[in-house]
Design a protein that fits this description.
single chain, about 425 residues, alpha/beta, D-Maltodextrin-Binding Protein, domain 2, 2 domains, 8-stranded mixed sheet, 4-stranded mixed sheet, 16 strands, about 40% helix
């Protein structure tokens, strides 16, 4: 599942109330995406898929508060389902008619930036005297920021408490050695149980992002250097060797090469798998499907002895400003408002997500206790998804997946796997 699918799935699975789409509202967009009379207020267009996925009236209420705080600016929400919004934005990017403020998926950012469809947020932040130290992350292309993640949906480690206890494992693993040992112990229980589940379907190759590269990020490593592929470095090699070792040990559930993300969730929910890396969104689904399933969440294990901040995979609702907006300063005021401490707390609470402002705290009252646990994990580390902002991100996952499957099949070495993938990735940059 891609970043966009995870985000949409997260909201559906969190039980957020959907409202009717208003795609028809996009039909009358002006060339600049905004309007203003000679003596009237500026009217900004804000195109996104968020409003239909939030409680009814939530986003409009935030816009009303923004307008009250900024009397010279009005906001027209252009809201629709994710797919319709994506089509609208791509058409607007090609025609130079993109709305002033846009909701973004990280997978679109590189293409939009190279088209000149997005404004340079680094410059807008500088012009506004904005302190970006409060931002949890920024998505950059060629050194400049083009997307700010407003809220994040994270992917921690899920562990089946009963299976681990039966295997003699008393706590979720926090290091790779502990993880490997726990996986072996659960697999040794027999009865078709497996320690870990690894989806590597090339049809939906996001397992490379969530289930393989996550081991690199969890130990502070990177698959990039200066924004370019760096797959042959020691951090990536160590993670790949670790997964290969678990494969050789037989600790990974069978069927990986054709398995998709939804398959691992089903296997974990049915009690056949001890551990999986998965979206926080699936907590509610697992509770619904089996109220008796006992499971915990924790940070993805790091290299033994690692004491730094751990990266945790995530998907985001991103914010950007159109490169063709006639009112970029006013558009950035809206971005700044949505990223302010109080408003970002409100938005993340309503979305059942984590804030993009490091000072913001969502209200967990009435939520599953694991959401608070996940937030504590999130605060101790940093959101990590290096595929966000890369060109043809899904194809990069797929080409790595092909090489990785050849490795697990015994057809090539780790070094050849990484060299081949590196070469293929370089051709895409």
């Amino acid at each position: 599942m891609s970043n966009d699918a995870r985000t949409r799935g997260a909201l559906r699975l969190f039980g957020v109330l959907a409202v009717a789409a208003t795609v028809a509202a996009t039909a009358g967009c002006s060339a600049s995406g905004s309007s203003a009379s000679s003596d009237g207020p500026v009217t900004l267009e804000f195109a996104q898929w968020w409003e239909p996925e939030l409680p009814a009236g939530a986003l409009r209420g935030i816009m009303d508060d923004f307008e009250a705080a900024n009397p010279g600016i009005k906001v027209n929400l252009l809201s629709g389902p994710y797919a319709s919004t994506k089509e609208q934005l791509f058409a607007g990017a090609a025609a130079g008619t993109m709305s002033d403020v846009v909701g973004l998926d990280g997978a679109w950012v590189s293409d939009f930036a190279k088209q000149g469809a997005l404004a340079d947020l680094t410059k807008l932040m500088s012009d506004a005297g904005y302190d970006d130290s409060q931002l949890a992350s920024q998505i950059k292309v060629d050194g400049s920021t083009y997307m700010i993640p407003a809220v994040n949906f994270v992917y921690p480690l899920f562990t089946n408490d009963d299976l681990l206890a039966k295997a003699g494992v008393t706590a979720p693993p926090s290091t790779r050695t502990e993880f490997s040992n726990a996986a072996k112990a659960v697999t040794a229980l027999g009865d078709n149980t497996s320690g870990w589940i690894l989806p590597l379907s090339q049809e939906a190759p996001n397992g490379i992002q969530n289930d393989v590269m996550s081991w690199v990020w969890a130990s502070g490593g990177s698959m990039l250097k200066d924004g370019k592929p760096d797959l042959t470095n020691s951090d990536v090699k160590s993670a790949v060797e670790f997964v290969q070792g678990m494969w050789k040990d037989g600790s990974i559930a069978p069927g990986s090469f054709t398995m998709k993300e939804q398959d691992k969730v089903e296997e974990f929910g049915n009690g056949r798998v001890g551990m999986m890396i998965d979206s926080l969104a699936h907590i509610n689904l697992l509770r619904k499907n089996d109220p008796n399933l006992k499971f915990s969440i924790s940070a993805i294990p790091a290299v033994d002895g690692f004491s730094g901040e751990r990266g945790i995979p995530y998907a985001s609702w991103g914010l950007g400003v159109s490169g063709s907006s006639a009112h970029p300063a006013e558009a950035f005021k809206l971005v700044q408002y949505l990223m302010s401490e109080k408003v970002n707390s409100e938005l993340s609470t309503k979305a059942n997500a984590f804030p993009g402002n490091t000072k913001s705290v969502p209200d967990f009252s009435g939520s599953d206790p694991l959401f608070k646990t996940a937030f504590d994990i999130y605060k101790k580390g940093y959101p990590a998804n290096e595929f966000t902002g890369l060109p043809v991100a899904e194809e990069l996952m797929r080409t790595f997946d092909t090489q990785f499957q050849s490795l697990l099949n015994g057809d090539q070495s780790v070094d050849d796997t990484l060299k081949n993938a590196q070469s293929q990735w370089e051709s895409q940059f």
